[in-house]
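Q: Sequence in, structure out?
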Amino acid sequence: MRAIPVFLILMLGIFSSCKVLFWRDTSQYLMPAWQTESSLIEVRLDYETKLSWNPLNQQALSRDFESTIIVHRIENGQLRDSRELAGYEGWTLEGSLFPARDVIILIRGTSDALGDEEREVLGFPMADEEVSEPSILLKPANTILLAVPSPDGRRLAILTTDATMDVPTGTLDIFFYRLTPRAAEPDGQTRFQHPGVPGIPEIAWAPDSSGLFVRRPGDIVLAPTGGGEARVATRFPRCFRPTTWGSTVSPGGIQALRSFVSENPDENPETRLVLERVSQSGYNNEMISDPGRIGYGCP
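A: Exactly. Output:
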């Protein structure tokens, strides 16, 4: 039996996996977020991707990220229509979309590495289901961890850190802003130590939106708005839920999620929006003084 030339085997391998060689268009939807009972906001992420040519490194490469904000109109639990609100360059961090009272808040990535530390916070003023040009609320040298509006929709807390997995400094910075229909005004900042960063801290806004509670391994810190000094709290929320905005479940108990159209998502990754009625979890803002009760009975 004649031996098959090595170069022929290599060529067959190359042509049988063209996705290794060529860029292909890819789309994905991020976690949707309810704005009102009749308005659901989504971000669609479009980019090009391919596998590395290096057989020892099969990590996917990506480039040319574009994000699009989409609003869905919902009536009686049914999707009525959808339209694009705005588009912008860059990727959007999963879980960072918060449509607040008069502004859509999100974290945009500015590099070709999905999820890396090059990020900035964007604010899209919104009125009558139309958005204006966005403002860059914060583009720090440090990594942005969270950007979360208060329950009343009038303030924003942005958490950043200079800590990395290699250099765990433990430093956590919180920047507060006042949100208006057309602007975001700085409202103080504070800094303290948190051994868990660069992991995502557990946070909860004060019921009156006057400050942000941050849970640490041994205590709970209250960072007040207006630039006051952070202090250890003696009373704090029983449920550490970041905010009422941006939930995948509407106030009326309708859950929004994406489902694959095909049973084989590898061959057909197309998805459709699914609306399902579920039990309402509510937003529990009871204040307690016993750390051992944190999380009990929370949705």
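The chain has one domain: 22-293.
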